[in-house]
Amino acid sequence: MSIDALPMISEQCPGVTVSRRSPFSVLPALVRDPLQALPPEIYHQPVVYSQVAGRRRILLADPVLIYEALVRNADALNKGEDVRRALGPALGQGLLTADGAHWRWQRQSVAPAFRHEKLMGLLPAMIAAAEKTRDRWLESGSAIGIGHEMMRTTFDIIVETMMSGPGGIDVARVERGITDYLKPTGWVFALSILDAPDWLPYPGRSRARAAAIYLRSAITRMIAERRRKPDGREDLVALLLAASDPESGRTMTDEEIADNLLTFVTAGHETTALGLAWTFLLLARHPEHEARVLAEIDEVTAGEPVRPEHIARLAYTRQTFSEAMRLYPPAPIITRTATRAFPLGGFMVPQGAVLIVPIHAVHHHATLWDDPGRFDPERFAPEQAKGRHRYAYMPFGAGPRICIGGAFATMEAVAIMAVLLQAVRLRQSGDMPAPMMKVTLRPKKEAEMLVERRA
Ligand code: HEM
Question: Does the global pTM surpass 0.85?
């Protein structure tokens, strides 16, 4: 069939399920937790279509269609209004939120920081930060908040590796600031769907704004310092200071550099920290998998301190982190807006439609995973992974906007697990904490774990 003959997406299109939930149930759910606002059909159907407040929304859980949309038709998509409204006030037009040519030259400018050889050189800093956390735990020997502890560790790593240290940034205030900023994002999404104006007040808005202002002022001071005293460091700040747009030849303003540093500091530590927190919570509930991880770490390190060359050999440890991110993807939903109509499967996506890729639903999809709720790191053993569609698992997204820090995050997570689990076991009593989405997927309440020194 020629493209011209394809119908616009509607309930008549084969394979398309229409969700008829009323805006009165969707919008309050969105405010509480966008994951709860997903139509339940998307956990077992390939495509769900809905119209909420006049906006056409197409949810995709079929890996073939996800590839068609995010990879093959990436040039027909941009990040859209929801993302701009939720993250723009904090991250401006940095790499995560920009579109088009402005996105492209920023991506090219920072790419050298993420090449394999460069990442290998960052491993000692990752190991050192994990050792600091381990020593703190061994000294205090008591209960810890696992989310908070992982945030501290990955924050140390991101500022050390990307900005050569925290300078004058108050780490605790940044962590609080990010949480305050993300808390009311459900409101932002709901108001965006209703096309309500940007200035409309909502609960938590002034705290979120104050947090964004603090984060930006701390980073701006650091940039000014680096401009005043260039020091030959080869980090992300240096790349951004030296970047020039291939089309116009212009360099980045301080504000554009701040947009990107804020993007990297936030996107680059919160997600990994949450992935690790869920990993430790799952291991505490699954002693058989925990025992395998501990045995692998002991065998590979042979009782020596963890070294960079150990990390690539910790295959089962890495599988465990991958499986935790399947069950609890730190970025559980990604969205795009169609800038022009394009064909997808047997229908046309109309211009202006919002495409939603609910990574959480893809990772739990009844047709893609056997017993989707079961924690089983063996799913990521090379033989098992071979038979699976590449986009049935996509914690880092897909296409040109795929996470630039995926390899960084995986290396970092394995290094942190190795250093910590060489020395301690983490225990948790009670039920597995319920997840809640605030842009990222966090435990609803901070989860306490007990640190038990390994004999
Ligand atoms: C487990 C950890 C991580 C997860 C699950 C994760 C997930 C994601 C996802 C799903 C996207 C795509 C969003 C979209 O398509 O709309 C993304 C983009 C991005 N991530 Fe990550 N991320 C992680 C760690 C990191 C790290 C460590 C860094 C930086 C060091 C980072 C920096 C970014 C940036 C800058 C983008 C925007 C890329 C672009 O649009 O070109 N992320 N991440």
Answer: yes
